[in-house]
Amino acid sequence: MAHKVTLDIENGTAARTPLDAQEEEVRAEHEAAYREHLAAEERRHALLARLRPDADLAAKVAAHDEPLSDNERDRLLRWLAASALGDTLEV
Amino acid sequence: MAWTTPPDFTAGAVVTEAQLDNLSANLTSGVERALADTVLASPAATVDFSSIPATFRGLRVEINARSDNLSTTVDVMMRFNNVTSATQYHTQGFYNWSSNIVFLEYAGSLSGIVLGAIPAASASQANQFGAYVTAIPDYLGTTGLKTAVTVGSMRYGGAGAGGQRVYLMGGTWDNTAAVNRLTLFPSAGNFATGSRFTLIGIPAI
After folding, report:
1. Using H for helix, E for strand and C for coil, what is the string for B4-53?
2. Looking at chain B from residue 159 to 178, which residues have their Cβ under 8 Å from any Cβ of chain A?
3. Does B84 touch chain A (CB under 8 A)?
């Protein structure tokens, strides 16, 4: 059973008591929301990893001395968009 | 309450009741002082600072904590006035990881603001804790929404290894009510034994 610690400053008391039913419910809802957030983050990181420019493209961008092909420009823009928009981007 | 400057007492002066009252008031809320402090003797799902006095200008929360959750880290959350509506909480921030910067955003999706992460049961060392300091200026103001700023750090790597992170986080509670209660809780599991939580009152000038 989960407990809470309450420090009542006005009365100078400290109490350790079990969470009541409503607090357990809030806790469960929060943990579910948090797991959902983590899953979304994982999806975003997977997407970023999939779209991340390979070493050749990265070197070409860094060198600035050769025009990018349409395909390379596409890949770069999609990766940049995914970085900015996170898991809301559908690709 | 604001600080009242004591008079320059001369030899043989009689101290009045009003002067003693001023001295008492100065010590109560005219100087920075700890309002509550606890070290957990056993795990707890939440730590509540309740009945926060309405006599200071700002608040500071200091945390040195760890979680018993079966993961490497969990986040530390903070809720205002026991309001659990996720839509009222927004957090932005970032931390370093090795040579990377990781940006975080929680926009109305969690029922509290995120202060940063602390080591949990799967961290490499059993005695690793995360330290955070959160400032809440003008907690009694009823004009603006409440914003808290946090800096902190923790490490979850093995002895001689990395895993150190530094956090800079900002969170807003979309509510103009004066703050009278703060609830700290981990995003999963409990705060572990030995975790420490302190609330400090910051006086007005």
Report:
1. CCCCCCCCCCCCCHHHHHHHHHHHHHHCCEEEEEEECCCCECEEEEECCC
2. none
3. yes
Give the pLDDT confidence of B169-185 residue by residue, as tens digits: 999 999 999 999 999 99
Rounded to an integer, what distance in angstroms lies between the CA atom of residue B195 and that of residue B184?
12
**What is the rounded average pLDDT of the residues B95-118?**
89
Token reading at B98: 């090795």
**What are the pLDDT digits (tens) for B133-178?**
999 999 999 999 999 999 999 999 888 888 899 999 999 999 999 9
What is the average pLDDT value for chain B, to the nearest integer?
A: 94
Diameter of chain A measured on Cα atoms? 72
What is the complex's ipTM, to 2 decimals? 0.87
Residue type, B2: A
> Which residue type sits at A65?
D
| A and B: number of Cβ contacts within 8 A | 80
- pTM for the structure as a whole: 0.84
Q: Touching check for B65 and chain A: CB below 8 Å?
A: no
Tokens of B157: 């790597």
Phi-psi region of A33 (alpha: psi -120 to 50; beta: other; left: phi over 0): alpha
In this structure, which amino acid lies at residue A47?
L
Do residue A3 and residue B50 have CB atoms under 8 angstroms apart? no
